[in-house]
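Reply to dn_fold:

You asked what the input looked like. This is it:
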Amino acid sequence: MNNNYNLPEELEAMLLDFYMMPAKKRYVSDDWVNKINNGRVAKLAATGYENFGHTLAIDYCAWLEDPSMPGVSKLLQSKIDYLCRNLGSEEIAKAKKVAKKIPPSPYAAKDCNFITLLLWQYVKNQGLQKESKMLSESSEGDPTAINFEGKLISQGLGYSLLEYDTIRKNTDINSIKSIMSIGPGYGRTAYVFLRLLKVQKYILIDIPPALYVAQRYLENLLPEKKIFKYRKFTSFREIEEEFEKAEIVFLMPWQIELLPEKCIDLITAILSFDDMDIRTIKRYLKHINTLGKRYFYLKTWKEWTNENKIIKWKESCPIPKSWKTLVYRSCRAQADYSEKLYKLPRHSKLEH
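and this is what came back:
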């Protein structure tokens, strides 16, 4: 770690634990840490938590593309094309008119506001009118968001609502009382689920700086919740009483190995497996099979490259035979991504 960085004490403690852990236990490769994650630490140190909404958010969420990246214009146009095909002419005209009145963000691509407005209308058309009224984007972290109909809206919030929509329409949603998110970024989807569902426990699994940002973000947005902040422990018994009382729990990846079997109703991995090699993904699948008792929701690129290998979900990561596929399709408004939803078995034995 670079001592020139002015790091918050909580983040510094997390980083110390992370770097002291053997590479295998980190659940990420040294190459990925050196090439990508160390840069994220530096970015947070340089720009501060107060600005993560338009700095780290670009790394953690694919909804805010960096205009300087190759191929971004194609991705942006594909979103516009999809949304325009699925909206009425009056809705599109209204979005164009409103977008022209809103100053473009210096942090995002030129069409970001137009896409945000189209997406928000599309979300409401999916039967999410009530949910879209209940929620608004927080100003926490100075996100790339726009004022519309008396509140802040963003693409991140819109995609989180669509992820929620897929799960609520294809599961027994009332049976989901506990959720685990693998790689939750800054906690955008966790916030949506905690607001919309009667979730008794939400567990976030990540590494710093993401774990630090999510912990601070959700602590600030949901101060009424009982929170188990990240800390070291060597057995579940050591933290069992506090864990059971907590409504939001923050853990490093290796700590899931200490949790009891079949203790989580829904496990999600949203745009996090894309950062992993096949070996790490298979380790997570094993833990998902052991810990999950109802459902697993996954969102990834349709194909991605890791360690110079092209990874395609079905070909590269065959799911256990005992998992039942409930959803497998292209993501709405994100044609380069797919979403998968599985019904998990009651037993923890892994069968390929």
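The radius of gyration is 20 Å.
Hope that clears it up.
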